[in-house]
Design a protein that fits this description.
20 helices, four-stranded antiparallel sheet, globular, mainly alpha, three-stranded antiparallel sheet, 11 strands
């Protein structure tokens, strides 16, 4: 029996765990409690046990949900993250809490040595960070946070203070990370893309000599089952890549390291989020009284480059490009569906993405209710192992927005309902088995709670919206129901 027939015929061995949803008020209250429990006073940890510091794209997603509970805290979440921005514009993927013991998480601050190894790139001296980045969801988050309470945002000068930092962040990615020379941003480590253990990295990682197992201790195995986590071999390769980048002073080189180092990849989700945030920066500029046309034009140009570089018609989705060999990686992951977010995506490509989403490789609405992180028919598929098959709530949220942006309202509503149902049923799990809904990883996970909260406050039906719009923090506009108002012309963590 071939692989497709084998997996299609494979019976589901455990019952479906998609229990009836809790009452909306109860779900909102539970999500708010998770965010309160994980709040540290200036930012929110993803999980008290497994991830005790501040993570970059987590904070962006968290702020999107926090805006419905406290717009001030949502603004503070992003402001705290950007106080750790480097002088070259990069936003590090971890900002370390100095009160957390070094052995509570690896790689710890003494591994990254940001204040010394990162000094040539302008790492801050007063806070310890990692030296790599994560997907740039931040401008989109800042715009949505502003929309939650525009009066508060304007009185605090939130956008005026964030805009130059966001612009510097985008400049870093568009110039110093243009590793392929075509305009897209490249990643130099799997942790940068956010989907750390994806099979998309197997081929590029295979050329990396792993660090010796005795040279590091994996703190993640203290909190997660080894069968759910990256293998020791892959983790050794992650450590080697990070150490080499650190020992090179975190240098990307003038105009970017063309061709990259041993690991250099153009990823569709990373670049789609950069493009989405360019659109958001255009809106922010206009809110501040400046022109947004140049940023909007850049977003449209980058969309065309994304299609030219990463679209694969035969696969019916976007694929990663390995810059070392300048070839597409023939693996289907949820990353290749995230560009559905983009309003300027050609209609035929958007339609093909929707077909792929509902087809046998992801089977949304048929065999799965949340979007698997990897191809159900792929040789490397594993329903429990980190990013090699489980379904994640942040990617479900992104795909839901993409479906809505392209008029797929029924599919968006079904996905939205599934996210809410499963978030509540699993205690806001980090990720789940895509077939059974069994929770995996940490529970009480911040971005799961935050994005469920956002979906509670972002119904599409006008009569539902009227019931929820009872104050500025519940403001739900056309800019929130999809990725952007389409009538407007003018992210392993390491």
């Amino acid at each position: 029996m071939d692989r497709t027939a084998q997996l299609t015929a494979r019976p589901t061995t455990s019952g479906i765990a998609y229990d009836p949803p809790a009452a909306t008020a109860s779900l909102r209250a539970g999500a708010a409690r998770v965010l309160e429990a994980n709040w540290t006073g200036g930012s929110t940890v993803p999980s008290r046990s497994l991830y005790p510091h501040q993570w970059s794209w987590d904070s962006a997603f968290i702020a999107i949900g926090l805006r419905h509970v406290s717009p001030l805290r949502a603004q503070t979440e992003l402001e705290t993250l950007f106080t750790a921005q480097w002088a070259d514009g990069r936003v590090p993927h971890i900002v370390f809490n100095p009160s957390v013991p070094l052995d509570a998480y690896f790689p710890s601050p003494d591994f990254w040595r940001s204040s010394t190894a990162g000094r040539p790139a302008g790492a801050p001296r007063t806070v310890q960070t990692s030296g790599i980045v994560q997907p740039p969801v931040h401008a989109l988050a800042a715009w949505l946070v502003h929309r939650a309470d525009p009066a508060l945002s304007r009185s605090r000068g939130f956008l005026a203070r964030m805009y130059p930092r966001l612009a510097a962040w985008h400049r870093y990615l568009l110039h110093r990370r243009d590793l392929g020379g075509a305009g897209l941003a490249g990643v130099v480590h799997p942790w940068e893309q956010g989907m750390d253990n994806s099979p998309c990295w197997d081929a590029p990682l295979a050329r990396i000599a792993p660090a010796a197992a005795r040279s590091f201790r994996r703190a993640d195995l203290d909190h997660g089952a080894p069968g759910d986590r990256p293998t020791d071999l892959d983790y050794g390769r992650y450590v080697r890549l990070a150490a080499d980048y650190r020992d090179g002073g975190y240098r990307d080189g003038p105009g970017g390291r063309r061709g990259g180092g041993e690991f250099a990849v153009e990823d569709p989700a990373f670049n789609a989020l950069l493009i989405a945030s360019e659109h958001a920066l255009a809106r922010i500029a206009e809110e501040l009284g400046a022109a947004g046309s140049a940023r909007r034009a850049r977003a449209e140009r980058l969309t065309r480059v994304l299609v030219a570089r990463l679209w694969d018609a035969e696969a019916g989705m976007f694929l990663c490009r390995d810059l070392r060999g300048d070839a597409l990686v023939p693996e289907r992951s949820v990353s290749g569906l995230v560009p559905l977010l983009l309003p300027g995506l050609p209609r035929d490509i958007a339609a093909a993405l929707v077909r792929t989403l509902h087809g046998p490789h992801f089977s949304l609405g048929d065999r799965t209710r949340l979007v698997p992180s990897y191809d159900l028919l792929g040789e490397a598929f594993d329903p429990h192992r980190y990013w090699r098959g489980p379904a994640w709530f942040n990617t479900g949220w992104l795909v839901e927005r993409g479906l809505r942006a392209h008029g797929e309202t029924a599919a968006a509503e079904a996905l939205r309902a599934a996210v809410l149902r499963l978030a509540g049923a699993t205690g806001f799990a980090e990720y789940v088995d895509p077939f059974t809904g069994e929770p995996c990883g940490a529970t009480g996970f911040s971005w799961t709670a935050a994005l469920a909260l956002d979906l509670c406050h972002r119904p599409s039906a006008p009569h539902e919206r009227q019931k929820l719009d009872k104050g500025p923090q519940n403001d739900v506009s056309a800019a929130d129901t999809g990725t952007f108002d389409r009538s407007d012309k003018g992210g392993d963590r390491g």
